[in-house]
Amino acid sequence: MVIPTDVNRILAQMTLAEKVSLVSGADGWQTQEVARLGIGSLKTTDGPAGARGKLSVGGSQAVFLPAPAGQAATWSRADVRAIGRVLSREAETKAAQVLLAPTVCCVRNPLGGRNFESFSEDPFLSGALALEYVAGLQEKGNVVAAAKHFVANEQEFERFTINANISEKALREIYLRPFEMIVKGPSPPGCLMTSYNSVNGLHADMNCVLIQDILRGEWKYEGLVMSDWGGTNSTVESLIAGCDLEMPGPSDRRGEKLLKMIESDENGALAVALAQSSGRVLSLLERMGLLGLSESAAKASRTAEEKSSTAATDLQTVCDVVANGTVLLKNSWNVLPLLPHQISGKTITFIGPNARIGAAGGGGSASMNPQYQSHPMDAFKKRTAQCGVDVQVEYSIGAYSHKWLPLVTRDRWTVATNTGPDSVLRLEFFDAPDCGGSLVETQYRTESLMDLFDTAPLALQGTSRVYSFRMTSTVTPGTTGRHAFGITSIGNSRLFVDQTLLVDNYHWKEPGESFYSFGSSEARQSMDMVAGQTYHVVLESSSKDYMDVSSQNNAGETIENPFGTQPSVRLGFLEQPSGSLISDALELANRSDFTVLVVGLNEEWESEGFDRQTMELPGSQIELITALLSGMTQPSNLIIVNQSGSPVEMAWCDEAGTIIQAWYGGQEAGHALADVLLGLKPPSGRLPMTWPRRYPDLPFATDPESWPGVSGQVYYKEGVEVGYRWYLRQHVQPQWWFGYGLSYTTFLVSNLHMTMTQGGLILHVTVNNEGTFAGQEVIQVYCWPAELPERRELVSFQKTSLLQPGCEQVIELDVQFRDMAHWDCGHWLLEKGTYVLGICDHAGGLAIVRQDVSIPSSLKWDP
Ligand code: BGC
Fold first, then answer.
1. Band of the pLDDT at 59, cuts 50, 70, 90?
2. Can you give the pLDDT at residue 378?
3. Domains, the chain, ranges and CATH?
4. Spacing, Cα 365 to ligand 1 middle (Å)
5. Most informative mutation of 30, 226, 229 for ligand 1 (most atoms within 8 A of CB)
6. Catalytic annotation on 228?
7. Which residues contact 256 (CB under 8 A, 6 or more apart)?
8. pTM, entire model
9. d(CA 617, CA 597)
10. Distance between the two ends of the chain, CA-based, in angstroms?
11. Is residue 794 within 8 Å of 121, Cβ to Cβ?
């Protein structure tokens, strides 16, 4: 038999059931193969900061890249394209053809749980960088992007059901704009993923206006549209709207249900929609070389082997990008960089919850199992040693910042196993509640985040199975004291220590934020324990009660997301701290020459599944910072580093001399920070989002209808006034503007020239490094009507190459008239008049140089 590779010929040979199978996912990450016709299975993998492979936790190792907020802070097209290229190689190691990224939703509110996964508050910056990310990723042809979440997924609160009410103007100018830019760009993403939420009354996956009229009709998008995981909200409407693929499988809304509907559909509209959608899945399979396979190869594509990343050459790129995105917020006394002759023979103390174990990324589907993690203090020691600089490095934690008790550690927890020395837990799975029924499988694990979404025994996965597991381990505390155990779980759970029930989370009622907010709040109990003594710990959990508990959201809709149906458990343990953390840290700082305080958030605070409740630093970090600033004999020697994906309140900012925003740097976070501190790499990042002074300054603080929503509705009342646009128009001063960031050097920008082109103009400007360190400058072009300076918007940007002191570069900036236009009654309009193109240091800065442009008659574009 000749196996066809041509989409139409294959379609003609397929049965209805086979076509249905193509548009209904197979398992957590793959589509269904049709072996008889040589059709293979597409494999997807998360996510924006790496290619994780088929397991959400504990899978094969991958390169952990900086979070997109940090990528965007580079303001460098070249850097983001390089990230895309690294990701294409990474996806290959995971045998995946679809990377579930980039996230191009907007940073609307600093509390948004997935801000760290997004690029920016500005649609132009987001779109321009996403374009590079996708182009780099798709360049080799082995993998395509699934840009997400189309559209208006700016919050996690009630994300499956919330209805985002957005004006047409804001939707077009802010939220759809980055999608439009990448779809119309030179390398459109192979896939788009719909958002969970509704937009103006209709779920995104069933939204004909968005998918049919705008995406496919106006923008002529030919790629595949897939639902978010569990985000196919109907059997018929979603297919009719053009959402081609339901993910994940086994199918909830399609499969048999869809087949029956099509068979009884008299007017044939469903069959037509099915042919179109299965055709688009086939086209992608063809593009990925997954058609025309032998029967056995088609089957094998479902189980292609994954490899741990061994990439070494890419790591330098990753480290450079992290450093390039690092934003120097303050350097008032020029303490940075710490040059060898200044620190040689000196003592440098690292303090803070993120100093020894830094935060590599946010949580949720963007989390990774990295090859390794470089942490701030260790990396600093390593770099100084490599450079032959003799420093004494000390450490004191100073404050905790955890939301849940820390995961158990291998130095204290262990379980007898023959699978290697690393296991800390044994899990025995049973096919009935309460560890009854038969033993199905025994697993050994290296961490106590037991997320079972895709790691439960295969026979037990799926939404309707009721099963249980028993976890066994031992703990030998290093200190004597009253030590705490904490568990959060989706199903019911309880923990025994030496056969005595210690933590009972069996009939939990209080929901928490673990497991994408499907889990309970943390149940904690402490007990007196003795150093060096070994305790036996057993935890039991089953999905029995979960099935009985209501899973309705506030709007009364039932949530059946696949992430919420396994009895996953998180176990934490903390030995009672001795002494006073803050005063110990202060005392140490006062004995040191320099203090590097690494504070911030982590994946427990910024994650898919929930938004932050406040903009404050969690735990006792604020007390720690203020104690150091007021108690240090030389506070000028305090360098404060913040790791987070969104702004945090810095009420103490005026007292601090040196502040760095380091974002989440993935596995190279520590190395890149050390390079920046030591001046081995200049920080050249600029904020991709405005940094508020205080959360109460924002309109969201007092209006629950606009954040996070009331009765299932959220109103985007600010319209197009998002981020810096709002600050400018409302005349509110932020802490730091969008686009802000310092360098170790200073630049002179001069000699602005303009040339008109067909659809816009080109600016040329000379940038000169006037200082004594090498550096990179970001040239930002804002446009505003001559009479309305508060209407300024970013229309072009370029980053210089690394300029040595005294060197200059001529930068070319392309400004398109269409990027200066606004949405006006069904089309884009640039009204006649005079506009200013100003090169500014940031969105709120005065123009360093400017050029007036006259538009003699209005210009119009179709959507
Ligand atoms: C997220 C997506 C992600 C998918 C698969 C969903 O919960 O919203 O961004 O790609 O899960 O992990």
1. confident
2. 98
3. 1-42+255-304 (no CATH), 322-402+578-730 (3.40.50.1700), 413-574 (2.60.120.260), 747-861 (2.60.40.10)
4. 5
5. 229
6. yes
7. none
8. 0.96
9. 13
10. 47
11. no
